[in-house]
Design brief:
The chain is built from no helices and eleven strands. The chain is mainly beta and 120 residues long. The strands form two sheets. Strands 2, 4, 5, 6, 9, 10 and 11 form a seven-stranded mixed sheet that branches. The relative contact order is 0.32.
């Protein structure tokens, strides 16, 4: 059973920084990608940032240059360093990993979410 445990959310003033962590366990298969989505009140869940198996990254336009996604060498923890935070970054942030089971078979898993609130 793949398990994702997030930490690091909280309340921060605009312009401040936070770092989210997501510890992933329970899979002996590689992760094709690891990263973050967010969902603000009344809005759909949206992609924030991902890091792929080859180390390449992808960011939403709204966070590019302010957020950095990374992972540890064991690829068991994924991080989201958020800087220059804005009130519009307020959302529940969800960790997401896609496990590659081989032969074209993949499955996505979600964390429970962590609240990030940015005050103006």
């Amino acid at each position: 059973q793949v398990k994702l445990v997030e930490s690091g959310g909280g309340l921060v003033q605009g312009g401040g920084s936070l770092r989210l962590s997501c510890a992933v366990s329970g899979s002996s298969f590689p992760y094709s990608r690891m990263g973050w989505y967010r969902q603000a009140p009344g809005k759909e869940r949206e992609l924030v940032a991902f890091i792929y198996r080859d180390g390449s990254t992808n960011y939403a336009a709204s966070v590019k240059g302010r957020f950095t996604v990374s992972r540890d060498n064991a690829q068991s923890t994924v991080y989201l360093q958020m800087s220059s935070l804005k009130p519009e970054d307020t959302a529940v942030y969800y960790c997401n990993v896609v496990v590659d089971y081989g032969s074209g078979s993949t499955m996505g898993y979600w964390g429970q979410g962590t609240q990030v609130t940015v005050s103006s």
